[in-house]
Records
---
Amino acid sequence: MIYVITHKVFDDSNLEGDHYRILHVGTNDNCKDSYLRDDTGDNISEKNLNYCELTGLYWIWKNAQEADDEIDGLVHYRRHFTTDLEAFLYDYFGKKPSILPYSVIEKDLKKYDIILPRKRKTFRKVSETYTYFHNDEDLAILERAIDKAALKYIADYRRVMDGHEYYFANMMICRHELLKQYAEWLFDVLFEVEKHIDFDKYEDDYQRRVFGFMSERLLQVWVAHKKLKVKEYSVFNTEERGETVLRKNAERVQRIFRKHEK
């Protein structure tokens, strides 16, 4: 089962039949009766402000009923996997892409361990990018937490943070057993971090999403350490399409014409 994480009602007409279930995260009631909720069973739903979609991951880990060899995964109500070609046509020509077919997912997971977004490339080191946009003290706390809760991963963590790419969006599709292994490792680390975080220091709700930001970097650490075979796909955002080529260059063309008119 692939779980679609949401915090609100959205148009779910493009989801592929029985292969997707919508999982509402957080404690608000802006959802349909048909949605699963992460504030049931063993859950950390009340921490959604700080953990974002990870409260959904925790719920899947603790409550989902899939067999270990079944396909499991996590995507977002507005972010889905698609092919590179469809993502290109969407970004530059506005053609709405289709979600990666489940038949392709099944085929891929016979050859690969996990499906992930294409890595996000950074000009700065991953660590520098994090401290540029977020709180540098938190990154120091994270390294100490890995040193304590997951010491075997510290070398991989430092390599990732010194690199220039990472997986974003906390999206993944794999077998249920692998997802459970990741969740257990991830929350061991993040719960250790949480003991040392002062949430009052954050100036806005965006920065309070600290564990969502951390886990975007930690996923690559875990994948590298486990030496998993990864199939990467593009991700499209249903709410924030990139500018088309015409829109992107319209102002530039206008400036050229104005210059020649003078």
---
Amino acid sequence: MGKVADNKAWFLVLPAVLMLTIVGVIPLITVFNSSFFDIFTEQSRFWVGTEWYIEILRSSRFAASFGRSLLFSAIILMIEIPLGIAIALALPKKGIAVPISLVVVSLPLLVPWNIIPIIWTGFLHTESGFLGQFLAGLGVDFNWKFNPVHTWSALILMDVWHWTSLVVLLCYSSLTTITGPYYQAAAIDGASRWQVFRYIELPKLNRVLMMAFLLRFMDSFMIYTEAFRFNAGGPHNATMFLAVDLGEDIAAFNYGPAAARSVIYFVLILTVTWAFNTALTQKSQKFTPVSG
């Protein structure tokens, strides 16, 4: 007698679907609709079609913001992914040191985004901040308010401090699933530390690294709170990233262009997410055994 299909369990996810529709789908539709209008007030709006999209995509302002965001994300990924793997490999695997080290590593993730720039401006203050005083003692005039290179360096340091912990925790959770016999076999074969990492640990990290790449790209690509509160897009628009640029339109009550920018940014993030998901699926299928 065959099994009877019972799909009643799907009713359990209906509340989540309803909530997602309310907080995600409906606002997205509203923003998409607003992007085709020139909006003065809620009652006074005029149809402009794709005018805002054409204007934004052709503007040097958008190209510059897009380039800054891509560069920032690339730098963040190149630093945080290798650093996160290295820290995860260095963490203890057993004993009382495990929970202690994991708690310490996780602490930066508990700090709210809007507090991060406040903390780091305090760190970098030349008179009261320990980091600012340390740099001044070395003879370094770290002027993050007016020097674009220094501002970028501070933002990168801030992001690395805040988010590398996420990569560490993801990698560590995957490394702990590797059983002892793998390492014992590698030791018997005389494998070097690099060979153990390359042929045993790295394949196990593939899926979590894809997840870490995706999460960190999305967050860093749409950085707003840290950059805006740190130096408001300055100096000289050096940190005017996509999200900060969008915030400028909203602050100026340019709701039509702001809505169009939001849709463009959403499509960019969606495209990258799709690319990562496709790569992850193909990699998973490649290593899935075929039953005979």
